[in-house]
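Intended use. Records like the one below are meant for learning the mapping from a protein sequence to its folded structure. Do not use them to infer anything beyond what is encoded.
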Amino acid sequence: MGKSGVNIAVFGIASNFILFLIKLYVGISSNSLAIYCDSVNNLGDTFSCLIALFGFIFMIKTNEKKGGRIQSLCSFIIGSIVAVTGAYCVYSGLERFMYPVLVSYSFKYAMLILLTAFVKLIMAMVYIIKSRKAPSPVYKALILDSLLDFGLTITAILGFYLVEKLNYAIDGVFGIIIGIIILAAAAKSVWQQAKILVND
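Structure written out for the chain above:
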């Protein structure tokens, strides 16, 4: 599973970094906090896949027992990175809610972000296929993260759209919602892996 895991991790690093750049461009260009937070989440995912890459490489050189512990440790670190990302989004959302700024909605930008959502869905499917062949807590973490990201990106698009229909303060609310969802999912993952590491 080690070599296969390395390939999947490299795939995740490249895909997430490209998604980060696209969303960062749209977020900055439109001044949308929801999209910007989504881009930061993808940057966190890039680092998460980097951690997974190191874990898979290390697994190739160790025995099965140590490999299992390494996978749990990698999952714990990935969850921690995602949790920090969620906390950042909540903070940014609160700041934007208190000090709202004008957001420039664009149909072209909305379609571009929608495309990135489906890329995340495809990534989740790839991870699911690999996980069935070689079950791993790292794969489970990546699957959960990808599916969560799909939902978060759809939420970000909704917030981006509603800014035009309602008012620009709603952007901060969606930033907070996205951050809380990320934080809650990450906290659950961190807790599960922490119990495994302590009891191992």
